[in-house]
Amino acid sequence: MDKKAILAVSFGTSYQDTLERTIGAIERQLAAAFPDRSLIRAFTSGMICRKLRERDGIEVPSPAQALEQLLGEGVTDVVIQPTHVINGAEYDKLMAQAAPYRDKFARLAVGKPLLTSVEDYEAVAQAILAQLPGQRADTAHVFMGHGTEHYVNPSYTQLEYLFHDMGRKDIVIGTVEGYPGLEQVLRRLAERPEVRKAALHPLMVVAGDHARNDLAGEEPDSWKNALEHAGYGVACDLRGLGEFPGIQQLFAGHARQAADNRD
């Protein structure tokens, strides 16, 4: 009988509280969806793996190390499910690490990141809207994505366009390391003089450093302080996307798709 596993691959976080509420919650959803598979965790961020090892004595393997471990345990059938938001650099890194193992397992499949198909964008939008209050003329919901120099960076603007197409023009999406950035967010808000309040949210699976510092921190250049300086009343909702049931279910659906449609 085949020995089966599911490998949940995340960028990672060193914040233990949000780790369990986000990555941990997604992993529990994956484990429930695949009761016939053992679940193993891997992080693509070497920096976070080192920090967890040196600070907490916690060993989290890289994807390559995890696959090597599964080989050693006699596993023959592996589904890899990333918890990445976009098909960006971290997903490329995962695929590069998985490539040498394609021929070492009898079956190996890799699920897609969160925002891949048009249907994914629609499902993500619905999962987010299920967590937001109804639309108010005086309030904008501002989401901070990570952003990237990778060519998939327009994923963020596509998601905002979809929200607007659904009638939710109160939702604005910017990024901390890409385009659009804070400057564009402020400009978009200024185009709507009736908006006097901004609710800030991370558009990231985990609410880690970027959410706590760049988005909601007390530093002068944080989005919170920049918006307050511009005259907006600001509230911060520091829940990572991984806390939302609809997002957890979407990742499990991607893993199921991968398991059912082998390369």
Automatic annotation (TrEMBL):
Active-site residues from the entry: H146 (proton acceptor)
Domain of life assignment: Bacteria
Gene3D superfamilies: 3.40.50.1400
The keyword Nucleus appears for this protein: no
A Pfam family recorded for this sequence: CbiK
One BP term from GO: anaerobic cobalamin biosynthetic process
One function term, GO molecular function aspect: metal ion binding
Chain sites annotated for binding Co(2+): H146, E177, H210
InterPro entries xrefs: Anaerobic_Co-chelatase
Keywords recorded for this protein, A-Z: Cobalt, Metal-binding
Name by which UniProt lists this protein: Sirohydrochlorin cobaltochelatase
Organism, as annotated: Pseudoflavonifractor capillosus
